Amino acid sequence: MESEYLETILRCHYQERTIDKVLWIKSEPAVPSGQNFLSRVTRVKVGVVLGSGAKRTVSVVVKEALETVAGHWTINSGLFLFETKIFTNVLSKMTDLMYEFGDKREQLWANLIAHRQKTIVFEDLKEANYKLDDPHQCLDLAHAKLVIRSMARLHAMSRVLIQRNELSANDVQPYSLLVDKDFANKVWGNGLKILSNEMKRWGLE
Question: Residue 64 — left, alpha, or beta (φ > 0 → left; ψ -120 to 50 → alpha)?
């Protein structure tokens, strides 16, 4: 097949899949109330017209820092920026690494779509039939093995990128979430005090 013809049909194919116009926007909470205190996570569904003229619904997840003490801490401590950098500087390189080695297994993270100081927008994995398990239930053996293998893949890719000097092991310092000691004492310190006081009333059983 001639390269010029192949280039033409591929350009047309992907042009037909691009978004030409937005028709409507609907949003709803992406996590139940009371499960996220550091940010607002919203699922946004968007009705669009593609380059081919077909109408489709696109879903994305939007994560925004809250205008609260905890929300301001995520910005001032650099935590929100750090999460953004994980997508832009680390996971993007891991994606390239998977392509380089022909790794056809499932990607272990959502694709980043856009970001700014207090906002991260990424693909909605629910559209790919992923779902959150009940955090109060234990994993069965098969899923526990899957988690361990997935963690091993992340670790292996990070080691390759460090050896290539594309990442630095010093990018994340130990106890990086404790940079604000006052906030850490209020959140974790007070929580441990309350827990210890309650444990005193548990009895010997």
Answer: beta
C-alpha distances out from residue 109 to 118, 138, 153, 154, Å: 20, 22, 12, 10
40 and 132 co-located in one domain:
yes
- Between CA 8 and CA 145 the distance in angstroms is 45
Number of domains comprising the chain: 2
For residue 9, the enclosing domain spans: 3-136
Cβ within 8 Å of residue 59, ≥6 positions away:
43, 44, 45, 46, 124, 126, 127
User: Could you read off the pLDDT of 18-64 as tens digits, one per residue?
Assistant: 888 899 999 998 887 767 767 889 999 999 998 888 899 999 999 99
Is pTM beyond 0.85? Reply is no
Do residues 58 and 45 lie in contact, with contact meaning Cβ atoms separated by under 8 Å?
yes
Does 11 fall in a domain?
yes
Query: Does 83 reside within a domain?
Result: yes
Structure token pair of residue 172? 């994340």
How far, in whole angstroms, is CA 108 from its chain's centroid?
A: 10
Name the one residue in this structure whose structure tokens are 């919203």: 42
